[in-house]
Amino acid sequence: MSVGAASPEQLLVELRRRADEDFLAPSTEHRPGRHSAELLELGLRVSITRSRYPNLPDGADMYAVTISRVRADGPPAEAAVRHALAAAFGSAADRATARPGGPAVRMFRVPAAETVQPNR
Q1: Which pLDDT does position 12 carry in this prediction?
Q2: How far is CA 116 from the centre of its chain?
Q3: What is the DSSP letter of 80?
Q4: What is the CA radius of gyration of the chain?
Q5: Would 119 be classed as within a structural domain?
Q6: 81-112 confidence digits (pLDDT tens)
Q7: Number of domains present in the structure of the chain
Q8: From its phi and psi, is residue 68 left (phi > 0), alpha (psi between -120 and 50) or beta?
Q9: Residue 1 located in a structural domain
Q10: Maximum CA pair distance of the chain?
Q11: If 0-12 CB within 10 Å is exposed, 13-18 middle and 19+ buried, where does residue 13 land?
């Protein structure tokens, strides 16, 4: 997904909506790039998926979020990461739990049950 006329915040809401769609009605077809976007204005690449963790029927319904710099030349700035999480998840961004990532990647899990769904 590339940046067009939509704002970075709109793109993040769209990524989350796609993650919700694929969680609720999984497709058998893999569509590359469906869950990630380059947000050039923020200098970030963001990926959002939704699944159960652990991957069991009784696992917790969670979003997995990966945030990196577009250039992948170092870790993304904390302010940019917090902005992206807040834009995608609203107040639930405060409940994002950091996960182990690489030197240039920040990874989080966000509880889906605590996230207000965007207006459609």
Answers
A1: 95
A2: 14
A3: H
A4: 14
A5: no
A6: 999 999 999 999 999 999 998 889 999 999 99
A7: 1
A8: beta
A9: no
A10: 40
A11: buried
